[in-house]
Amino acid sequence: MYFLAIETSCDETAAAVFTEERRILANVIASQTDLHARFRGVVPEVAARAHLQRLLPVIEEALGQAGIKLDQIGCVAVLNTPGLVGALLVGVSAAKALALALEVPLVSANHIEAHIYACLLAAGRDLFPCVGLVISGGHTSLFHCRSALDFELLGATTDDAAGEALDKVANILGLGFPGGPAVEQAAFSGNPEAYRFPRSFLKVERLDFSFSGLKTAVLYAVHGQGATSGGSPTPEKCADLAASFQQAVVDVLVGKAGQALTLTGLKRLAVGGGVAANRHLRLALEKMAADRDVELFIPPLNLCTDNAAMAAIAVEKWRHGHGAPLDLDAIPAYHG
Ligand code: KG4
Ligand code: ZN
Fold it and tell me: By the 8 A CB rule, do 136 and 11 touch?
């Protein structure tokens, strides 16, 4: 049986086709980076309109790549939460219309949980139970994942998400959008010990995060204490700031993931979300996992950032009879 999956929670219009056995036949992603770059951030209204224009061609391309026709689809899956409500609505409406027209079941899944599930798809073997770390533009959260249907939130950011902090610091440093890859690029030639930035909550037992103080510390290092604007740093200073900031983010993420492993006693760590594409972070996580004798799951880059293949978590829901009604809504906030 073929599943058609749709993802439109933020600024990627994505559709995927996979089988009941979770074999990915197509994973098409139309990025909107070009549309949002001049605003140096995602503009919700622009994102929603672009989804509207791009979703049907993206679905057609996915079907073409999979080599199947629309009437061969046996189930429609959609990631309906969390995300930008206008953006989500485009995907949810399309999924409902397709399920109704094709007279096939509709299944919904959670975008954050799907990011973790991408680890299982990439590894092709069982993942659960594990600690899940989702690091994206909107979320930084730790979970005790008992199964594909049972995620317990252990902690989350109390202010900015890690990706959000990367995007904002890239702005402060005058780097491009999206900020994560730009900071990573700038950091290559910098000294990660040039600046000692704060590592919030690192020594605290609770599994929450805070990145807003770190972001402000970078701002003051660029413009001076208390100042919020001024000239751009020299390329050398920019590289050192990027490397020191990136190091602080990595230390916190790796440290907190380690604390979650200790607390739960679990021996598997699954990491997902756009920030997991960062090479420096991947190396640091690999080292931590090897030191602790923990099995680390991180998907390849195209399954870290937003995509619809990760909606294959919906197959598990479908197997357990958890279908979605045709009055399914887009839910912007995360509810575990
Ligand atoms: O998961 P994702 O694609 O979208 C959301 O669900 O938010 O994550 C996007 C975030 C952005 O903040 C982006 O700057 C960050 O992932 N990102 C990276 C890298 N590539 C994307 N952060 C650090 N290093 C990267 N290479
Ligand atoms: Zn995401």
Answer: no
